[in-house]
Amino acid sequence: MILIVLLVTAYGLLVKRPLEHMLAERRARTTGAVEQAHAAIAAAEARTAEYEEKLRKARAEIMAARESSLKQWSVERDKALADARAATTEKVKAAKSEIDVSVAAARQQIEGMSAELSEQVLRAVMPPGTLPEAAR
């Protein structure tokens, strides 16, 4: 019986205490490693959020620059269209003016020729000697 007590005491001193001490140390290290992993994950999430915010700001700046460029191009296009319309309007006015001059000249020519044509028609239709004084 003494041998059993001595054996249990020796087991407790030589095996159980060092084993429990080593297991407690491992548990502490494992818990510390888990805490470090959680801290690393939290830091990574913070960095990710920071990068996402920077990315959002960059996208907003790009969109603002794009909007500005589109507005500028729109203004330039509108100005070019207005210039083209003005030039076209001037060309149309010049062409109308030329047409009006041509119409006036044609009317004068027609009026000048109408008397002569009416006299020729009278000569062709009326027998000779019956023509009025004005047609002779």
Explain the overall architecture.
This protein is mainly α. It has one helix and no strands. The protein is rod-shaped and about 180 Å long. The protein starts with a helix and ends in an 11-residue tail after the last helix. The model has no long low-confidence stretch (mean pLDDT 89).
Number of H/I helices: 1
What average pLDDT do the residues reach? 89
Fraction of residues in helices?
over 70%
Question: Which radius of gyration do the C-alpha atoms yield?
Answer: 56 Å
What is the N-to-C succession of helices and strands? Answer: H
Alpha carbon gap, first and last residue: 175 Å
Number of strands: 0
What structural class results from the helix and strand content? mainly alpha
Low-pLDDT ranges:
none
Share of β-strand residues = under 5%
Task: Give the overall silhouette.
Answer: rod-shaped
List keywords for this structure.
mainly alpha, 1 helix, 91% helix, single chain, 136 residues
Helix-strand blueprint:
Blueprint: H1 2-125
Summarize the structure.
With 136 residues, the chain is mostly helical.
